[in-house]
Amino acid sequence: MRAPDPLIGRDLLNGQFQIVRKIGTGGMGAVYEASQPSVNGKVAVKILHAKLANRKDLVSRFHREAAAMSHLTHPNTVKVLVYGEDEKDGLLYIVMEYLEGKNLNQTVRAEGPLPAERAIPLLVQSCHALQEAHEKGIVHRDLKPENIFICNQGGMKDYVKVLDFGLAKVTEREMRPGSMILTQEGMVFGTPEFMSPEQAQGKTLDARSDIYSLAVILYEVLTGKLPFDAKSPMEYIQLHVQKEPITLSARVPGKTFPPALDAVIAKALSKNRDDRYQTAAEFAQALQQAVGQGPTSHQISPTAHSPVPSNGSPSPKAPEAASPAAPLAHAMPAAAPAAAASKGGVSLVYVILAFVLGIAVALGLALFVFKR
Ligand SMILES: Nc1ncnc2c1ncn2[C@@H]1O[C@H](COP(=O)(O)OP(=O)(O)O)[C@@H](O)[C@H]1O
Ligand SMILES: [Mg+2]
Domains plus CATH for the chain? Predict the structure, then answer.
């Protein structure tokens, strides 16, 4: 018999959260369900494995994940409520909204390949979450079906939440002068099956690498197969760099896909990133056009920035206005994207007002001078 998990039943942040059960285990840690007695709610808590807590690289990666996610406010990105280091024993945690549903890998394993009408909206939502991250200079770098969660909660079905920014890095473009450059040429991180050619070669990555990975995910969701036949992770890495992908239509005998969809996926899987869609929003739009689906209001990417916790402090950090005790967002916010989308309209009103005011002042002055 295995020893019971010592974390079950323990509390975090002076009893604000109580760990109830383990949801899943990953390379760096485990994700637990926890209760939040003050609001009679549930949260998910990611905890770094105790045995890895002395690995400086992993600790900083954990912090980076929390920091990256706390920059993001898109409703299709999992929301971080608070993160930090427990005062008692230095346990590193990230408290997130609790999601009900399955990840995309579990979904495809349970239900088989998904029809395009269902798969495209899932990918489009993922693209919009990524678009926000990219606009803020964050590249996910580990997109795979396991990190795309399909929520069925609060009356929503097939609502996407992008997870696991554990490998996310802030691109050099966005880094403040003098800060350390995190991107190191020659180092390969990620998951071989979903890796872009440039990632497989250990090059510096940008948003277009995530677009390639999203295209591999879509390919697998539609066909149940990857775009190459390989026997080992090393071989996948090699094929991403060298071999043209098998076309969607050739992949599953007897199954046909809209030709336009084949073309969109082929473009997103271009070896040369300059030949791909250049933004996730552009990729989303092409996908929707390929299957004749229009954009929906909740897919508009918001540009609103959220406050970012400062680095270095060991105490818990609440990344957004929501305090850890705030009720969890089970219903997905729709107002923020709409407000952000209307920003351009608001600034135009200011310009017109300023113009009218300017004319009024000039007229007043002219009258005053004329009278004297
Ligand atoms: N907020 C959440 N609510 C519910 N389940 C979650 C949540 N976050 C992660 N999970 C589950 O735990 C698994 C591992 O989470 P992930 O963030 O991908 O961590 P890892 O770094 O261990 O891969 C996911 O595939 C998902 O099924
Ligand atoms: Mg993961």
Answer: 11-97 (3.30.200.20), 101-175+183-304 (1.10.510.10)
